[in-house]
Every structure is written in structure tokens, then in C-alpha cells.
Amino acid sequence: MxxxxxxxxxKTARALSLGECVTVSGMLFTGxxxxxxxxxxxxxxxxxxxxxxxxxxxxxxxxxxxxDGWEVVSCEPTSSIRFERYGAEVVRKFRLRTLxxxxxMGAGTAAALRETGGVYLSKIGLSGNTLRGQIKKVHxxxxxxxxxxxxxxxxxxxxxFGPFFVAIDAQGRNYFAELAADAARKLPAIERKLxxxxxxxxxxxxxx
Length: 208
Description:
Blueprint: E1 2-5, H1 10-15, E2 21-31, H2 33-42, E3 55-58, E4 62-66, E5 69-74, H3 84-94, E6 98-101, H4 107-116, E7 119-123, H5 128-132, E8 135-142, H6 144-151, E9 153-168, H7 175-194
Parallel strand pairs: 1-2, 2-3, 3-6, 6-7
Antiparallel strand pairs: 2-9, 4-5, 7-9, 8-9
């Protein structure tokens, strides 16, 4: 398994294969909904050197203030798809090369990553407590007073952080979208084999 140094280079990102498992080592920053909304709608964001710290970890960590400084109690990745509305603009604004989160993101973010030469990495059966042990140091925090510990932007130094798998590659391919399309192609044959009528209607869940 590859351990990739952060910030990830465009050459490295474009060489990664969809579904490939990796770990990362170096500096990253965290954020959730408020980071996206403020960066896009208010042009308000942490004063980070985004060329040097170019990995965005979607997480609302549990943090503890100790006499020796801030300590990460847990850092379970949060579902990234809910940031899709702002995802592409954030990637382009900061020329991001690495996103880390849970589940997937949409076509807009995939297109932006293709432009910047970046990838989206998704969790594989990891707990936030496991990832906590891979954080070497908490370097800084931004907007703690107005956003609180969960929505604040933290700067972590990590070592062999992961593993995660490439869920969106630098060519814009989406692992979950391709998996869903493959399942849809195979479903009619499976239904025929199981004797399920072609006009069978599955229960629809009302999102309202």
C-alpha cells in the first residue's frame, strides 16, 4: 500500500487508480458545513497556505483541551455528499488536490478534481478512534470562538493516515457511480433468474 506525502503532487494524484488503497502523511486541514458555506458565500476562510496544506479532511472532530495542548479524542470522517452544493467551488477556489471523507461526492466535485488534478479518498471501515492514533500533532485551530470545536478548522499533522480508497480519481471517475451503474445493468438478469416480474414495483421511500 502506498503512503503518499502531503501535499500530494498532481503527478501522484493522476497516477492513482480508482479503488486503490492509500495512506497519507503530512499536513491537512479540517472542515464541515460552515467551512464550505463561509468560503463560498462570504469569502471567509482560514488564513492557511493552501499550496502547502492542500488536503481537506471532512470531519467534525471531538477535541479535548489539555495542559499540554489540544488532543484529538476522535475524528470520524463525515459524509461528504452533503457538501456537494459547494464542493466544486471550494476545490477550485483553493486548488485542492486531496479530499478525505465518507461515502462519495457528486459530478460537480468530480469535474473540479479533474481540473485541479485531485482525488477524493473515502474511508474503509475505520473508526474515528483508530484515526486519532495516526495524528502526530495538532498545529493550529481557526474560528474556534465563533464556530466551536466541531465546525472549527483544525490543522493536523498525520502519519500513515488511513487507509482510504480512491473513490473519485483525477480523471473524474467515481467509484460509487460506476458501481451503481454496473448494478443497474446486472439487475434485470438477476430478477429474471429469481423469477421477479419485469413490471414489479419496488417500494419508493418518500424523502419528504
